[in-house]
Amino acid sequence: MIRVQARVEQSTLMKITSPILAIILTLIFGSVLFSILGKDPVQAMHVLLIAPLSDLYNIGEMFVKMGPLLLCAVGLSLCYRANLWNIGAEGQLLMGALGGSASALALIDSTSVFALPISLLCGVASGMAWAAFPTYLKLKFNSNLILTTIMFNYIALYLLLWAVHGPLRDPEGFGFPESALFTDVTTLPVLFEEGRIHLGVFFAIIAALAAWILLNKSHIGFQIRVFGEDESAARYAGFNGKKLSWIVMLIAGGLAGLAGVAEVTGPIGQLIPSVSPGYGYSAIIVAYLGRLHPLGSLLSATFMAVLYMGGDLAQIEIGIPTAVVGMFQGVLLFFLLACDFFIRYRLTFISNKTIQE
């Protein structure tokens, strides 16, 4: 008989290295899968992981994808450190894109230097407002945060689809579900002429640094960590659980909203239905791969961005479907959770004779 027992002491080294082990196991699994599909695993891995970093343009595209992943992951890391299971980054990102686009279109004839900051703030506020609804439901009615945030993701998606098919659709767009192109005053500046890397990438890096300072150098951050590790001890110490819940959820919503508005005012330049290829969901994996550490999320967001780039290249060069990226993300999360399980627990084998005694 197999019995699961909690470990008395958890290995600090394994906590740090388990993401690396999970990545290695994922790559091994991917190689086997590519072989079964009749593809050269070495070539496939090269296209998936090395080719995206082959030139400066591709590296710039990798940073473009890393930005929204990192912004969402940083916010989710704060929530998970406070033991709040927010799965709503995707919806908050979409609402940030919708709110920011509505502002940018309202200011489409403006020449004011404040047009872009106003659009960005509207996107952030929209993401925060979308995070506020499930937070209120949880604190007022003790609703399940996982279920409510997931449901609000779908509501946000259909609101965005309604907007691009209705009030925000470009009247001169020949009926296509997209808004008019934003003007220069409401688009983020491109940092390099040969590429699409824009100012939003720096927003993400600054957010990661600010979140690290908040968690490790502030009293609020200390309360968040204590509340997440032992809620009863936090309440005994007089920490306000409702206040902390509002803080981390609104920060997460604001960062996801910033990711959304940075997408539409950055590389896309207009509101379209496919604003996000699932950045909000992938950010959950990014947060856990980064060990719920804002700076760790910077590394894991870079790796996930490379996977997104590699998936596009793999489809073009060797005919692998883009769904392989989703497969890699799922398998990576599976191996990461498996590694974490064995960090906390161990399996012991007990004979039937011992059970009878």
Can you give the mean pLDDT?
Answer: 90
Taking the sheet with the most strands, its summary is: 2 strands, antiparallel
Task: Give me the Rg, rounded.
Answer: 22 Å
Helix content: over 70%
Q: Helix and strand succession?
A: EHHHHHHHHHHHHHEH
Report on the structure:
This protein has helices spanning 12-36, 41-50, 56-81, 89-106, 115-141, 145-165, 200-217, 219-229, 231-236, 241-268, 279-289, 294-317, 323-344, 352-356, and strands at 2-6, 345-349. The chain is mostly helical and 357 residues long. It has a two-stranded antiparallel ribbon. Helix 3 crosses helix 12, helix 5 packs antiparallel against helix 10 (241-268) and helix 12 packs antiparallel against helix 13 (323-344). The longest helix has 28 residues, at 241-268. The model has no long low-confidence stretch (mean pLDDT 90).
